[in-house]
Amino acid sequence: METWRLVATGAFLLGGLVMILVGMAQARDRKGARRSDVRRALLVGAVTVAVVAVLIAYVLPSVLAWGVVAATAIAVVFVTMWD
């Protein structure tokens, strides 16, 4: 496996973890939220991140893979700086 794929996958997994945690926090903060809502947010986020990480690691061309990583980084900055 090429080095750029490892770096891109690692960067995406780091950003994906942050996005999962943000999604779980938002699910928890909703009115009438239950623990199952937070668990569902974790499950959906983890499966989505895992599938995209596998695609980045093995399938996607470099331009598209790095585009996904950049979009994730922009989303993390936007969501974490939102007030």
UniProtKB/TrEMBL annotation:
Keywords, sorted A to Z: Membrane, Transmembrane, Transmembrane helix
TM stretches of this protein? 6-26, 38-58, 64-82
Q: Does the keyword Transmembrane helix apply?
A: yes
Q: What is this protein called?
A: Uncharacterized protein
